[in-house]
Amino acid sequence: MDRNTTPKNVAIILDGNGRWALKKGKPRTFGHLQGANNALKIAKYAKNFGIKNLVLFAFSTENWKRPKDEINYLMSKPIEIFQEKQDEIDFKVSFFGRRDRIPKKLEELINDIELKTKVYDNDFHLHIAVDYGSKEEIINSSGSNEIEFKKGLMFSENIDLLIRTGGEMRLSNFLLFQSAYAELYFTKIPWPMFNKNTLARAINAYKKRTRKFGGLWKNNVS
């Protein structure tokens, strides 16, 4: 393996929005707003870095436990942001997760974005997980072998690099099967402050690592 290779599939757990906002004396929703605006910026940077698939964890199945006002904001504000910036999107965008619990307007927007961006080639693909939980995904995937099992997954590619912002060091039920051999990168930088330079640092850290996938690397006998 070429250790200088840019990761093909990168996943990011978008964390720290609310805590970042509170430290600035703002409501948690302000952090979510800045985080949502940051998503398209990072997607464009990822595309320029040569990443093929960028997977963003936007809302988990467990996030329904949050205060109702915060959930309503998270379920409505993305509509405005994507409607305002959809002309800036020049790559394919897909969403995965449950769609039976999200508001109808958000579901319609998701369908519209997927349809409009379907025309773009596969050089770069942005995947956004909304109302997604990996345990539920694994339980619902009923294949009898790995090939059949992966057909039932909502995102079937193996993750090369998984990044989590905001300082927490856990996977939070995100792409557990797909990240079995992912390189993990944790940063204290909250998602709204995550930018081109911090993404570059994560990619450079990935390039310095040796991926053995359970085997041995050259003369390494550990």
Structure explained in plain terms:
With 222 residues, this protein is of the alpha/beta class. It has one domain: Undecaprenyl pyrophosphate synthetase (3-Layer(aba) Sandwich), CATH 3.40.1180. Helix content is 39%, strand content 15%. A six-stranded parallel sheet has the order 3-4-2-1-5-6, with helices on both faces. α4 links the parallel β3 and β4. α2 packs across α3 and α3 packs parallel to α4. The two termini are 18 Å apart.
Which labels suit this protein?
globular, Undecaprenyl pyrophosphate synthetase, alpha/beta, 222 residues, 39% helix, 6-stranded parallel beta sheet
Please outline the helices and strands.
Blueprint: E1 9-13, H1 17-23, H2 28-49, E2 53-60, H3 68-85, E3 92-96, H4 104-117, E4 125-132, H5 134-140, H6 146-151, E5 161-164, E6 183-186, H7 196-207
Parallel strand pairs: 1-2, 1-5, 2-4, 3-4, 5-6
Summarize it.
With 222 residues, the chain is of the alpha/beta class.
Q: Going by CATH, what is the homologous superfamily?
A: Decaprenyl diphosphate synthase-like
What best-fitting shape do the alpha-carbon axes yield? Answer: globular
- Indicate how many domains the architecture comprises: 1
- Which sequence of strands runs across the widest sheet? 3-4-2-1-5-6
| Strand proportion | 15-25%
Fill in the CATH topology.
Answer: Undecaprenyl pyrophosphate synthetase
Average pLDDT figure: 90
H/E series: EHHEHEHEHHEEH
Helix-residue proportion: 25-40%
